[in-house]
From TrEMBL:
Matches recorded under PANTHER family: V-TYPE PROTON ATPASE SUBUNIT A3, VACUOLAR PROTON ATPASES
Pfam families xref list: V_ATPase_I (PF01496)
GO BP field: vacuolar acidification
MF-aspect GO terms: ATPase binding; proton-transporting ATPase activity, rotational mechanism
The protein's name in its UniProt record: V-type proton ATPase subunit a
Length: 824
């Protein structure tokens, strides 16, 4: 296209000025801000949210910029706030929402956050030490209890053996008495081996491997006893609940002891001392129990203190967080400004809408006054050939439709915005595929629920799918309303027809024609006033009739929307004063499309209005194969043959009309533009020097005729083939409408009516439940998504490719409204 007109220029174009049809006129502005008022100025501009700053220090690393130290300080405060938030979430607190602004200086806040962090870290460290000591004492108590049972059982068995030996000594020797028993029982005490033991707890899942390794490492010279601890134990080191076993390992010698100690460390077995003396055992159990109760009390007091501290932080957390984010974003923006040579002021450049000029100037004046600056900030508009960003003022109703268009590509600066038409055409094409006023009412009720509870949902954190549905609630509302409208036209309520507006215009000639065919029907009343006559549903002619109706309707809608796209390309060409696109793109495209498919639409309308039996397939095929043959019974009006030959010739002429002249005209325009302009007078101006350096290469780039011609060839082929494929693509409206209707009919007949026919209450209830689940799951969820995606494709590919370039970039102003949604 031609050059973009100046932002402040006149309107022009074929359409009246609309806020959404053309993006807002933008201007490149320059601000010269004194150092003492720079912070307040950027803060006020962030509150205004209508200026997109350019990075004038792109060649510098973040550490080389002016305010790197302040950003580091803000980042440290943000880290402390994240630490507080994690601690509150662990403790089950949530930050309180507060509308009041935090009346605190950022420096005071930094000191306060540092003090709170130090206090909280100290409380956590003391709590962890106490908790670890408590967990160790719990394990120690378990070891004392279980190990004492080992020794008690060992002593009991030893006493039994001793008493058995004594009883046998009293009695006489018998043949059953072992010969070596006396020698075994009377061994010299000086020759007995003294055994040592180690006690502790080992994780239960490692207990088998622990026992096996001990046996192999000591070559069987170890005796291991284990007892299962019923409840999971909190491990002192990891702090997690672990199922454990108490063990006592008996050994002989220091080498075995060292091996056992190393194995215990490898398996994470916690060791605890144990005494064989019963009195010492009882004393240890009493002492450990007392220490446990003391530690429990101390831990509870520490937790209460931590909760009180977190509660105090939570009361002001959101205010502090917003203040820190605001401060960090201000310094990020200040780092995008360049420092003046005198180092007394900052120079900023950025894009702003033209309507925001007065607002920005007012903000600059207020900032100078509030910061007691002796010099005010300077505001001036720069002239540039750089493409401005695209900015549309939307509201909660129009924003979902704008997002649908932007997902394909952001509009080029001030080109025609498809959103104006998408607001109507998107939900309507969806409804053509989803036409059932019963399903439309269900969709409407779900949407009204979202709209009625709008304030509540907007303040909550929603899931991904729910957030997407809530954001597009007004789009879904229009989809539901249009679905009710098309459902009334199709006369379908969950696939059931109703005589809503009048009785059927037809009646049976005799009883034999009922539910079998329309051949026996005769017209006894006036034509059904709105939509499809209910008599067609359930008849033998239903599918042929509705297929013909919906297929022809799809072609009419498709040709109408493609013509709208071509007309919008004329609006763009007229607005940008590009006459080449008007004469060698818009006119031949309009002629080619309407010579073929516009003519087909005309034949459909004539056939409907006259009731002719002409075969339109035959007419269109032989329009190309044998244009001079007589049409015979397929002739719909006088002069049709001559009109067809003329339209065919126009379509053939339109192809080279699109292809050949435009590249040569563009080449001639390029030569005229640069003839005699090899040298230009140099004006002594710093801005002109800068702009010349930025745009010299753009103004004097070479014109490659071969590339332009190939591009035009591709564009021509794409349009010619696309006219056929795009028209065929609109037949998806017919296909999906038919599929939706047939699915709804199958669910109604095979689930609801089949269950009704059994005359059984249980079967009927089950049938109703299955029917509701199938309707919601398939027709209201899957079919809705399917029709939505197909409507999206029709807009992106078939409609927008006729005029929409979509190679712009969005206007992202510096605003504190964005900082609340950003995760640091």
């Amino acid at each position: 296209m031609g050059e973009v007109r100046a932002a402040g220029g006149g309107g022009g174009g074929c359409c009246p000025p609309m806020n959404l049809f053309r993006s807002e006129p933008m201007q490149l502005v320059q601000l010269i801000i004194p150092m003492e008022s720079a912070h307040v100025t950027v803060s006020y501009l962030g509150d205004l949210g209508l200026l997109q700053f350019k990075d004038l220090n792109a060649d510098k690393s973040p550490f080389q910029r002016t305010y790197a130290a302040q950003i580091k300080k803000s980042g440290e405060m943000a880290r402390r706030l994240r630490f507080f938030k994690d601690q509150m979430l662990k403790a089950g607190f949530s930050p309180k929402k507060s509308a009041a602004q935090a009346d605190i200086n950022i420096d005071d806040l930094e000191v306060k956050l540092a003090e709170l962090e130090a206090e909280l870290v100290e409380i956590n460290a003391n709590g962890e030490k106490l908790q670890r000591a408590y967990n160790e004492l719990v394990e120690y108590k378990l070891v004392l209890q279980k190990a004492s049972e080992f020794f008690h059982s060992a002593r009991s068995s030893a006493a039994e053996q001793h008493s058995e030996y004594a009883s046998r000594q009293i009695g006489e020797d018998s043949l059953d008495t072992p010969l070596l028993l006396e020698q075994e029982m009377s061994t010299d005490s000086s020759k007995q081996v003294k055994l040592g033991f180690i006690s502790g707890l080992v994780p239960r899942q490692k207990s088998m491997a622990f026992e096996r390794i001990l046996f192999r490492a000591t070559r069987g010279n170890v005796f291991l006893r284990q007892a299962v601890v019923e409840d999971p134990v909190t491990d002192p080191i990891s702090g997690e609940k672990v199922e454990k076993n108490v063990f006592v390992a008996f050994y002989s010698g220091d080498r075995a002891k060292n091996k056992i100690l190393k194995i215990c460390e490898a398996f994470g077995a916690n060791r605890y001392p144990f005494s064989e003396d019963l009195n010492k055992q009882d004393h240890l159990v009493t002492e450990v129990s007392g220490r446990l109760s003391e530690l429990k009390t101390t831990i509870d007091v520490g937790l209460l203190q931590r909760d009180n501290l977190l509660q105090t932080i939570g009361d002001q957390f959101e205010q502090w967080e917003f203040l820190v984010r605001k401060e960090k974003s201000i310094y990020h923006t200040l780092n995008m400004l360049s420092l003046d040579v005198t180092k007394k002021c900052l120079v900023a450049e950025g894009w702003s809408p033209v309507f925001a000029t007065k607002l920005i100037q007012d903000a600059l004046q207020r900032a100078s006054f509030d910061s007691n600056s002796q010099v005010g900030a300077i505001f001036q508009v720069l002239q540039t050939k750089e493409l401005p960003p695209t900015y549309f003022r939307t509201n909660k109703f129009t924003s979902p439709f704008q997002e649908i268009v932007d997902a394909y590509g952001v509009a080029k600066y001030q080109e025609a915005n498809p959103t104006v038409y998408t607001i109507v055409t998107f939900p309507f094409l969806f409804a053509v595929m989803f036409g059932d006023w019963g399903h439309g009412i269900c969709l409407l009720l779900a949407t009204l629920f979202l709209i009625i509870r709008e304030k509540k949902f907007s303040s909550q954190k929603l899931g991904d799918i729910m957030e997407m549905m809530f954001g597009g609630r007004y789009c879904i509302l229009l989809m539901a309303l249009f679905s009710i409208y098309t459902g009334l036209i199709y006369n379908e309520f969950f696939s059931v027809p109703f005589e809503l507006f009048a009785p059927s215009a037809y009646a049976c000639r005799d009883l034999s024609c009922r539910d079998s065919t329309t051949m026996g029907l005769i017209k006894v009343r006036p034509t059904y006033p709105f939509g499809v006559d209910p008599v067609w549903h359930g008849s033998r002619s239903e599918l042929p009739f509705l297929n013909s109706l919906k297929m022809k309707m799809s072609i009419l809608l498709g040709v109408a929307q493609m013509n709208l796209g071509i007309i919008l390309s004329y609006c763009n060409a007229k607005f940008f004063q590009n006459g080449v696109n008007v004469w060698f793109q818009f006119i031949p495209q309009l002629i080619f499309l309407n010579s073929l498919f516009g003519y087909l639409s005309l034949l459909i309308l004539v056939k409907w209005s006259t009731g002719s039996q002409a075969d339109l397939y035959h007419v269109m095929i032989y329009m190309f194969l044998s244009p001079t043959d007589d049409l015979g019974e397929n002739q719909l009006f006088a002069g049709q043959k001559t009109l067809q030959i003329a339209l065919l010739l126009l379509a053939l002429v339109a192809v080279p009309w699109m292809l050949i002249p435009k590249p040569f005209i563009l080449k001639k325009q390029h030569q005229d533009r640069h003839r005699g302009h090899s040298y230009t007078p140099l004006e002594i101006s710093e801005d002109n020097i800068q702009l010349g350096a930025n745009h010299d290469s753009h103004d004097h780039e070479e014109f490659e005729f071969s590339e332009v011609f190939v591009h035009q060839l591709i564009h021509t082929i794409e349009f010619v083939l696309g006219s056929v494929s795009n028209t065929a693509s609109y037949l998806r409206l017919w296909a999906l409408s038919l599929a939706h209707s047939e699915l709804s009919s199958v669910f109604y007949d095979k689930l609801l009516m089949l269950a009704w026919g059994y005359n059984n209450v249980i079967i009927l209830i089950v049938g109703i439940i299955v029917f509701i689940c199938a309707t919601v799951g398939v027709l209201l969820v899957m079919e809705t998504l399917s029709a939505f995606l197909h409507a999206l494709r029709l807009h992106w590919v078939e409609f927008q490719n006729k005029f929409y370039e979509g190679d712009g970039y969005k206007f992202y102003p510096f605003s504190f409204a964005w900082t609340g949604d950003e995760d640091e």
